[in-house]
Amino acid sequence: MTDRPTVEDLDAVLDDGPWCCTGNAEDCALCTDPNPNYPWICPGHPRTAANERIVGEAAQDVALDPSRRYLRPVAPLPLPGVEDVTHWSVYQWLPMFEAWATGMSLCGASMRQGPLPEGTTVTCAACEAYRPEYERMLAPGYRPEDDDPVALRKRAEAAEELLKQYVDLAAVTHKYPITGGHDCLGENHSCAGCALAKQAQEHLERDR
């Protein structure tokens, strides 16, 4: 049985395909035609810095969660009198357009559409001042009531009441050390201190 011929023997030239994608125009960030010609092959694109940035951002977007929103650096519109500084903007998935998009800056200025590369230094002082608040609000698990003064006050009052009850029960159990730190003041002569400790723990886990 003879060996298969090598690639060199066949004078074959291997095509690595376009640098921007796997060759499918529908998956290429630079192929903007919504109806590419069959068989939907990417023709290839110049490898410029701008095109590399578009391809890189598209690759990053694949790993993003469409149900979340993110902070991304953005550039201002090139308008007369507008200072050329970088800003923060909220980056979110828009189902209507099936695309990721940025909006106004955190400081309220109009921005160019699309984020700058991650790691770009934000030089707007106002956006930087807002950033910690937005990072907290955009973090997974954030609840709007976490910033509601009324809700926070109710949580503090409930915690204070539980603490008072616990202190009162501790004063009782200290009078009777023979009980080993427990009392029989709860339902069916159970330890009210243990029941109260459980309530306090549940309160902390729910409202931490």
What descriptive keywords fit this protein?
alpha+beta, single chain, about 10% strand, about 210 residues
Explain the layout of strands and helices.
Blueprint: H1 49-62, E1 69-74, E2 87-94, E3 99-105, H2 125-138, H3 149-175, H4 192-207
Antiparallel strand pairs: 1-2, 2-3
Helix pairs in contact: 3-4
Description:
This protein is of the alpha+beta class. It folds into 3 domains: 16-63, no CATH class; 64-142, no CATH class; 146-207. 34% of the residues lie in helices and 10% in strands. It contains 4 helices and 3 strands, in the order H-E-E-E-H-H-H. The protein has a 3-stranded antiparallel β-sheet, with helices on one face. Strand 2 (87-94) and strand 3 form a beta hairpin. Helix 3 runs antiparallel to helix 4 (192-207). The longest helix has 27 residues, at 149-175. The relative contact order is 0.07.
Nutshell version of this structure?
The protein is α+β, with helices and mostly antiparallel strands and 208 residues long. Helix content is 34%, strand content 10%. The chain folds into three domains: 16-63, no CATH class; 64-142, no CATH class; 146-207.
Specify the overall morphology: elongated
Mean pLDDT: 76
Distance between the termini: 73 Å
Question: Which spans have pLDDT < 50 for at least 5 consecutive residues?
Answer: 10-15
Q: Provide the number of structural domains.
A: 3
